[in-house]
């Protein structure tokens, strides 16, 4: 059950890239780093998917979307959910982080900085609207399990911050 | 360990999550403000997610090809093995926070050890869960301090909750026959080893929160044997209604 690295066959990438996270539609499942393995064996595409959070309802939707995307090109896909190793925000690609910021969600900080901002000790999260770091935590839990709610004190816009998970 | 024994061991872990998640779910749309409402339901979602992984695993070990839904929804009260603490009602926000904190500190220490389980699936679930539980503990610990060291009214209310809920904390460390089997095989967590760390951590937060632990309480137990408090039947009626009324319904 342990997979340290991803193993994704090249010819499957274009199809996987078209499947997005239902909560953050600008991110593909590849950007998010939840696909740990995708191989085609005897006409069947076998995918290993790891959840971001245990209770993330997006996982069921993503599994359905993956099966649908492959069935549209006449292929059967089998999606297996794997838990180990546990997903980390480090697995979000740099391109994914940029798309996330452009979409209005602040990117996760490193572990120690993340803890400091979530305890309200330091101002490090950059407002995705105006770029100011003069921001404060409104709630450790946001609109989905993976996000916390922040507000910018300069432009006053509330925004989501993607929590660091390691 | 036979499949049946492992099945029972898993339920002993997972039922705590299910029942506490159900209690928190009752607050959806009823939290004292929007942020705490969202936080508490987010915590419930994490607990349900973890418990789903446990039940899915348990279902594969069960006789008669049970599904995760059968395990979650179609047992009688005596077949649920959760500790009494998690079924206690949401009397007021002080109770919600005290119950959460008293469970979170235990839950964190528990999954921390479960990561070392020789059972690969349990270890994988624990490695996932610990990241989530660390957020829960931070949230509830912060609120214990805020209420305890807040106004005289908030202090009174959280102290009242601590007084009433503390007698349910010893049961978390009670070792059942199933636990002993699981510990002997390196699958389970030795609960007695968590106790001193638990008391230390709770005492540290309570000190900052200016709260006191009740002296010489009578400790309640029974949940792990399926003997629950009077609150459990009502909780299960809510929890099981859909599956009992529309058998085999799916989302």
Please summarize what this structure is.
The complex is a heterodimer of chains A (166) and B (251). Chain A is an alpha/beta fold and 166 residues long. Chain A is built from 5 helices and 8 strands.
Note the topology.
The complex is a heterodimer of chains A (166) and B (251).
Chain A: E1 7-8, H1 13-17, H2 29-32, E2 35-41, E3 44-49, H3 58-71, E4 76-81, H4 94-103, E5 105-106, H5 111-118, E6 135-139, E7 147-152, E8 158-162
Parallel strand pairs in A: 1-2, 3-4, 5-8
Antiparallel strand pairs in A: 2-3, 6-7, 7-8
Chain B: H1 3-25, H2 34-61, H3 68-73, H4 84-87, H5 93-114, H6 120-148, H7 152-165, H8 177-184, H9 195-208, H10 231-245
Helix pairs in contact in B: 1-2, 1-8, 2-6, 5-6, 5-7, 5-9, 6-7
What does this structure look like?
The complex is a heterodimer of chains A (166) and B (251). With 166 residues, chain A is an alpha/beta fold. Chain A has two domains: 7-91, Fe-S cluster assembly (FSCA) (GMP Synthetase, Chain A, domain 3), CATH 3.30.300.130; 104-162, no CATH class. Chain A has five helices and eight strands, in the order βααββαβαβαβββ. Chain A has a four-stranded mixed β-sheet. A four-stranded mixed β-sheet of chain A has the order 5-8-7-6. In chain A, a hairpin with a 7-residue loop joins β6 (135-139) and β7. Chain B is an all-alpha fold and 251 residues long. Chain B has one domain (3-245): Ferritin, core subunit, four-helix bundle (Ferritin, Up-down Bundle). Helix content of chain B is 65%, strand content 0%. Chain B has ten helices and no strands. In chain B, α5 runs antiparallel to α6 and α5 packs antiparallel against α9. Chain B is globular, with a radius of gyration of 18 Å. The mean pLDDT of chain B is 96. Chain A binds chain B through residues 1, 51, 53-57, 82-87, 118-119, 138-145, 149, 163, 165-166, and chain B through 34-36, 38-39, 42-43, 45-50, 52-53, 120-121, 123-125, 127-129, 131-132, 135, 138-139, 142.
């Amino acid at each position: 059950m342990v997979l340290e690295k991803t193993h994704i066959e090249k010819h499957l990438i274009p199809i996987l890239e078209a499947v997005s996270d239902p909560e953050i539609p600008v991110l593909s499942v590849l950007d998010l780093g939840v696909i740990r393995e995708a191989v085609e064996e005897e006409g069947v595409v076998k995918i290993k998917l790891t959840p971001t959070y245990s209770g993330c309802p997006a996982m069921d939707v993503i599994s359905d979307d993956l099966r649908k995307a492959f069935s549209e090109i006449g292929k059967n896909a089998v999606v297996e959910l794997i838990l180990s190793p546990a997903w980390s925000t480090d697995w979000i690609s740099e391109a994914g982080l940029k798309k996330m910021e452009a979409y209005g969600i602040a990117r996760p900080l490193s572990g120690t900085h993340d803890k400091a901002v979530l305890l309200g000790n330091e101002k490090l999260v950059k407002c995705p609207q105006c770029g100011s770091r003069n921001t404060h935590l409104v709630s450790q839990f946001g609109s989905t399990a993976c996000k916390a709610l922040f507000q910018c004190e300069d432009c006053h816009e509330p925004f989501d911050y993607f929590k660091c998970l390691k | 360990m036979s499949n049946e024994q492992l099945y029972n061991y898993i339920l002993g872990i997972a039922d705590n999550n299910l029942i506490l998640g159900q209690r928190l779910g009752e607050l959806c749309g009823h939290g004292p403000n929007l942020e705490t409402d969202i936080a508490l339901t987010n915590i419930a979602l994490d607990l349900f997610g973890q418990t789903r992984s446990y039940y899915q695993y348990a279902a594969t070990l069960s006789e008669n090809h049970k599904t995760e839904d059968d395990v979650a929804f179609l047992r009688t009260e005596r077949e649920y093995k959760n500790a009494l603490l998690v079924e206690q009602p949401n009397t007021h926000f002080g109770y919600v926070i005290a119950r959460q904190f008293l469970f979170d500190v235990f839950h964190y220490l528990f999954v921390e050890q479960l990561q070392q389980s020789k059972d690969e699936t349990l270890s994988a679930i624990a490695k996932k869960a610990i990241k989530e539980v660390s957020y829960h503990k931070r949230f509830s610990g912060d609120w214990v301090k805020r209420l305890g060291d807040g106004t005289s009214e908030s202090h009174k209310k959280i102290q009242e909750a601590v007084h009433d809920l503390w007698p349910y904390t010893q049961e978390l460390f009670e070792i059942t026959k199933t636990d002993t089997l699981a510990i002997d095989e390196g699958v389970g967590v030795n609960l007695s080893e968590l106790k001193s760390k638990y008391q230390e951590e709770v005492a540290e937060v309570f000190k900052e929160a200016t709260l006191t632990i009740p002296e010489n309480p009578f400790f309640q137990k029974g949940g792990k044997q399926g003997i629950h408090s009077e609150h459990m039947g009502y909780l299960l009626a809510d929890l099981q209604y859909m599956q009992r009324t529309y058998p085999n319904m799916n989302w």
